Fold each of these.
Amino acid sequence: MAEREQGGAFGAFLAGFLTGALVGAVAALLFAPRSGEETRRLLQERGIELKTHAEELTTQARSQAEAALMEARRRAEEAAAEARRRAEELRKWLEESRARFEQMMAQR
């Protein structure tokens, strides 16, 4: 559960970061004293840079999510194996207890 919350927090951070970067870049370019052609060129360059950065962050986020998923699966498999082991121990204990009970009842 905590891992899911961390992933959600990272996703929110990533979205906020990218939105802030985009708004800041556009505002800086629009308010800078440049010609229209130069401003368009800079917007295009910044757009390409932001796209590249977003792709890198997406790749990192995907990698982290896959690692978290693998860890969650490993823990779930360990928990299931432990539950099976304990269930088997309980079954054996119940069989032994039943056998002792029947033996006691037969002696009466």
Note: The chain has two helices and no strands.
Amino acid sequence: MISIVYNSQQYAIVAYPTHEALELVDKTCSRSLFVHGAAAGGLRRAIESIPDEQRSEESVDALLDEYCAGTARPIVLH
């Protein structure tokens, strides 16, 4: 079972619990990044470490921008 755990105008995060994985989808740049295991856990912890009073769509999207920089791959349709 998959579920969308975050959805903003720029990003979506899809969770794959049975695989302990997350897929980050950058809607604006049409790219994605699939992380699993420790990397997925690290991303969850990074998002959770943003203090509640500072956690907003802008702060989470900024974190995801940094996380995807240089590692996300273009989404290609066949």
Note: The chain has a mean pLDDT of 91.
